Amino acid sequence: MSVETLATQMKAGLDAPICLTWELTYACNLQCVHCLSSSGQRDPRELTTAEAMAVLDELKALQVFYINIGGGEPMVRRDFFDLVEYSVGNGIGVKFSTNGAFIDAEKARRLAAMDYVDIQLSVDGADAATNDAVRGEGSFATATRAMDHLAEAGFGPFKISVVATRQNVPQLDAFKALADRYGAQLRLTRLRPSGRAVDTWDQLHPTQAQQREIYHWLLAHGDNVLTGDSFFHLNALGDEALPGLNLCGAGRVVCLIDPVGDVYACPFVIHDEFLAGNVRNPGGFTEVWKRSDLFRSLREPQSAGACASCGSFDACQGGCMAAKFFTGLPLDGPDPECVSGHGDAGLAAAAAVPVTLKPRPAQDHTKPARTPAPV
Amino acid sequence: MSTELIAHPLLSAALELHPQVALRPEPFGALAYHYGNRRLVFLKHADVVTVAKALADHPTLADTLRACGIAERRWPSFATAFQSLLQSDVVRERRP
Questions:
Q1: Which of A7, A85, A254, A346 measures 20 to 30 Å from A96, CA to CA?
Q2: CB of A364 closer than 8 Å to CB of A38
Q3: Phi then psi for A127, rounded to 5 degrees?
Q4: Partner residue opposite B22 with nearest CB, options A6, A18, A65
Q5: What's the pLDDT at B6?
Q6: Do B33 and A5 count as a contact with CB atoms less than 8 A apart?
Q7: Is the distance from CB of B6 to CB of A64 less than 8 angstroms?
Q8: A62, closest residue in chain B (CA to CA)
Q9: Which of residues 18-37 of B touch A (CB under 8 A)?
Q10: If pLDDT is split at 50, 70 and 90, which confidence band does A245 have?
């Protein structure tokens, strides 16, 4: 079977997700200005330990091989280790994203002793000034302290996860050097205008020149830098495709379970329009994945719409659904960061729409009375 | 058996599914996940899945292909497919 037919199969949806993100809590010690889940405060309706374990039982039956745990800060949950151990004990590997605040020497040793656990430490600048402007005062020192603990505990190659921004694209080599220094693997992903980034994307998203820089830098580093396949819209920049499946996996191979059990098409579309169901309802997660109206419709052939006449559509697939949705662009048209500039007109038109009429994230767990971090 | 087939060394190899690999059936074949190197590999044909599962029950890859009823004209493409699965550690050589 050729790669193309495989992609066609993927678009029609798999029997279970390959890449399932599970935000365990909306509680977070940080309040990053681009947080995709607008996290901060715990939601009182959060899944209990028993409910979370029941979901893991389902995932085991579905043969989901690993899950991506995030938040919020997942280590805030008191049952964090219980859930991770239960998951791994059932053959579901865990990759979790953390800001590192709760990884001390003892926790690092505990994590190092576990099989099938990967850690992604988030930093968004290669130095404290760049990072802390987005993630908050002291967060760079916190993250590097956690890296030191993991290195000391002999955890092995953890991941350093970076969201590419206008401010940190000049630091790509520095990020790679930071990862190399720890024997870690660098993961670079695309900023989407989701969560709190609805309000900060304008200032944070890379320029067109920087998009070209990212594309060529990623090509030069190949499989050594992970991207979660998030930059496929850049494939229109050249003949050579970035490594990955080159498709939007939302509801087809990817989905999100949020802290209260709501299932969304992907981690970047926490909005009613992309809400497929809840794991607490009859049939649980399995029913949502296999039979929800939303996921079934996402698995239908999608129209290329306004992109149909563009010669690059096969390469870029029209880009990211979440990026279009939260910038107010039609879903069957160009990505706001279309490398050919086809998104510009739509963005200009959307700019004229009053903020109150634009899509906003369904959940906002931002802590009250916070001092906005400078961008 | 043609000389071309005999020439492919993998056909006479004793193989098995790597013990750290799990297979999940999918419409196109199966997903293979390797818990050791954490890599996902796509088995893009149902027959490849059948053969992969049966490897350990037969002395060689050729014996497995025969037992699974795979026509000999398809053996070269299976040898290539299993060469690639060997490289990604989805299958491994059985040690006596």
A1: A7
A2: yes
A3: -140, 165
A4: A65
A5: 56
A6: no
A7: no
A8: B24
A9: 22, 24-29, 31, 33, 35
A10: confident
Q: Count the neighbouring beta carbons within 10 Å of the beta carbon of residue A181.
A: 11
Q: How far is A110 from chain B (nearest CA, A)?
A: 19
Residue A4 confidence (pLDDT): 57
Q: Which of these ranges, A6-10, A25-29, A308-312, B32-36, has the smallest mean pLDDT? A: A6-10
Check: CB of residue A193 under 8 Å from CB of residue A327. yes
Q: CA distances (Å), A76 to each of A23, A37, A151, in order? A: 12, 16, 22
Closest residue by Cα to residue A233 from A307, A328, A309: A307
Residue A15 makes CB contacts below 8 A (sequence gap 6+) with A62, A290, B24, B25, B26, B27
> What pLDDT is stored for residue A231 in this prediction?
96
Q: Residue A8 — very low, low, confident or very high, per pLDDT cuts 50/70/90?
A: confident
Identify the bridge partners of residue B91 per DSSP, sorted by sequence position. B17
For A136, the token pair is 């908050």
Which of A198, A362, A366 lies closest to A271 in space, CA to CA? A362
Cα angle A42, A46, A47; round to 5: 150
Element (H, E) at A159: strand A159-164
Distance from CA of A80 to the nearest CA of B (A): 21
A66 interface with B at CB cutoff 8 Å: yes
User: Residue B21: in which H helix or E strand, if any?
Assistant: strand B21-26
Nearest-10 crossing angle of helices A49-61, A284-291: 50
Averaging pLDDT over each range in A36-40, A247-251, B25-29, which range is the top one? A36-40
State how far residue B44 is from chain A, nearest Cα, in angstroms.
Answer: 6
**What 8-state DSSP symbol labels residue A206?**
P
| Residue whose structure tokens are 């995932």 | A59
Are the C-beta atoms of A300 and A251 separated by less than 8 Å?
no
In the prediction, which pLDDT does A28 show?
A: 98
User: In a mutagenesis test of the A interface, which of B20, B23, B31, B78 is the best target, namely the one with the most A β-carbons within 10 Å?
Assistant: B31
Q: For chain A, what is the total number of helices (H) and then of strands (E)?
A: 14, 9
| Model ipTM over 0.95 | no
